[in-house]
Amino acid sequence: MELEIYTAFRKVGIEDKEARAVVVSINKEIDRRYALYVQQLATRGDVEVVRKEVGELKGELRAEVAKAQAEIIKWCMGSIFAAVGLFVALSKFAN
Fold first, then answer.
1. How far apart are CA 80 and CA 94, in angstroms?
2. What are the tens digits of pLDDT across the range 35-85?
């Protein structure tokens, strides 16, 4: 691309020194913009790190969900037994 830009400038009569300066300036601007994008782009390594972290969090989340399920089952069963006991007590009391 640099050569094409330089050649185009030379064909329209721009002096060699000025044509080179413009090409250098364009290259610097491209490099500056590329540097900004590089900071925002994720590399394969970055993606792998995130995948690993998500996998670990997924395992921890599964363990937490399993604990919560066990806790819910425990409380539901306790509530059911308490309700049955209350019903039996009230039935005997009502007679």
1. 21
2. 888 878 888 999 999 999 999 999 999 999 999 999 999 999 999 999 999
The tokens describing 13, both together, are: 């009569």
End-to-end CA distance of the chain: 99
Tell me the whole-structure pTM to 2 decimals. Answer: 0.45
CA-CA distance, 53 to 61, in Å (whole number)? 12
**Quick one: which H or E segment has residue 50?**
helix 44-94
Measured in whole angstroms, the distance separating CA 3 from the mean position of its chain's CA atoms is 41
Q: Which two tokens stand for residue 17?
A: 């020194």
B/e letters for 75-90, b = 16+ CB within 10 Å, e = fewer, are eeeeeeeeeeeeeeee
Three-state DSSP state, 14 = coil
> What are the phi and psi torsion angles at 14 (to 5°)?
-80, 135
